[in-house]
From TrEMBL:
Source organism, top-level taxon: Bacteria
Gene3D superfamilies for this protein: Haem-degrading domain
Protein name: Heme-binding protein
InterPro entries: GlcG_carb_metab_protein (IPR052517), PduO/GlcC-like (IPR005624), PduO/GlcC-like_sf (IPR038084)
One Pfam family it belongs to: HbpS-like
SUPFAM superfamilies associated with the record: GlcG-like (SSF143744)
Length: 144
């Protein structure tokens, strides 16, 4: 029996790197966003509400990040009937809105990113840019 498992953890520097990459992408699209980064346990590690973003997107961005970190899947891919049940079963802590992506390293979930305040497609695009930058960053051996 194995009593322990190895774990890779997202650092605050990694979370800030993701936040910066997402902010840059949002500025390039001219879409101010709320951006949330959580670790694998759904603990908020970094957050920004860019000037001009929607106040209510604070919650949706955070919920998107939490959902992606919990499931290891992008948000927005669940059938509408199951999405309502998911939200009800988790007291609204999980969402099916586009814009949440898991952060995976060597097949292990290390966290999630959630973007909110644009259209779902804009939110997802910005999340993808940030995750791609993060993956390139750790691929260069900068994860340490």
């Amino acid at each position: 029996m194995t009593a322990l498992r190895p774990a890779i953890k997202l650092t605050h520097e990694g979370a800030l790197f993701l936040l910066s990459a997402a902010m840059t992408a949002a500025k390039e699209l001219a879409v101010p966003q709320c951006i949330a980064i959580v670790d694998e346990g759904c603990n908020l590690m970094a957050f920004v509400r860019m000037d001009g973003s929607r106040v209510l997107s604070i919650e949706s961005a955070t919920r998107k990040a939490m959902t992606a970190a919990t499931t290891g899947q992008p948000t927005g891919n669940i059938s509408p009937d199951k999405a309502i049940a998911l939200a009800e079963a988790t007291d609204g802590r999980m969402t099916n809105l586009l814009g949440g992506l898991p952060l995976l390293v060597n097949g292990q979930i290390v966290g999630g990113i959630g973007i909110g305040s644009g259209t779902g497609e804009q939110d997802l695009e910005i999340a993808r840019v940030a995750v791609a930058a993060f993956e390139a960053h750790i691929g260069e051996g900068s994860a340490q």
